[in-house]
């Protein structure tokens, strides 16, 4: 675990414990730690530009709303022909879904590390009535 204050990372071992924890608990007569407040404000100044509501809204607009609007325009063009075609295809896939099976070929370990790559070989079986685009 890493604690970040004012853009500097401190591993949560000796340096973090020797710097951060005493700073937090070093409360003067006013009931709070001036050093902690100063460090927290400095940290907020560096991190707020990346983690704020305006950036989040713009991410949603760019990553979700704009692509959805473009997709909606494609689907509704030409009297909704593409939307009808997509709906029919989805209905055929749903009706034939029981005829689809996916299985792993070969041996796969039960566990792997979170950052480890895993190569899989997948086999897919389709019944005769599964629509293929």
Description:
With 133 residues, this protein is of the alpha+beta class. It has three helices and four strands; from the N terminus they run ββαααββ. The strands form two sheets. The chain has a two-stranded antiparallel sheet with strand order 1-2. The chain has a two-stranded antiparallel ribbon with strand order 3-4. β1 and β2 (8-11) form a beta hairpin. The longest helix has 44 residues, at 53-96. The two termini are 48 Å apart.
> Pairing-aware structural class of the strands and helices?
alpha+beta
Provide the spatial order of strands within the biggest beta sheet: 1-2
Q: Using the alpha-carbon principal axes, give the shape.
A: elongated
SSE order, one letter for each helix or strand:
EEHHHEE
Distance between the termini: 48 Å
Helix content bin: 40-55%
Task: Give a quick precis of the structure.
With 133 residues, the protein is of the alpha+beta class. It contains three helices and four strands. The protein has helices at 14-25, 34-47, 53-96, and strands spanning 2-5, 8-11, 100-105, 121-126.
Main traits of this protein?
elongated; disordered N terminus; two-stranded antiparallel sheet; 133 residues; 15% strand; 4 strands; 3 helices; alpha+beta
Note the topology:
Blueprint: E1 2-5, E2 8-11, H1 14-25, H2 34-47, H3 53-96, E3 100-105, E4 121-126
């Amino acid at each position: 675990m890493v604690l970040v204050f004012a853009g500097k990372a401190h591993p949560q071992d000796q340096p973090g414990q020797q710097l951060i924890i005493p700073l937090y608990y070093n409360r003067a007569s006013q009931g709070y730690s001036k050093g902690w407040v100063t460090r927290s404000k400095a940290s907020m100044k560096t991190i707020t530009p990346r983690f704020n509501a305006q950036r989040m809204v713009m991410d949603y607009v760019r990553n979700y709303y704009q692509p959805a609007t473009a997709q909606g325009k494609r689907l509704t063009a030409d009297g909704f022909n593409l939307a009808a075609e997509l709906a029919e295809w989805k209905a055929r896939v749903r009706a034939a879904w029981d005829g689809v099976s996916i299985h792993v070929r070969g041996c796969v370990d039960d566990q792997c590390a979170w950052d480890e790559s895993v190569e899989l070989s997948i086999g897919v079986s389709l019944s005769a009535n599964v629509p293929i685009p």
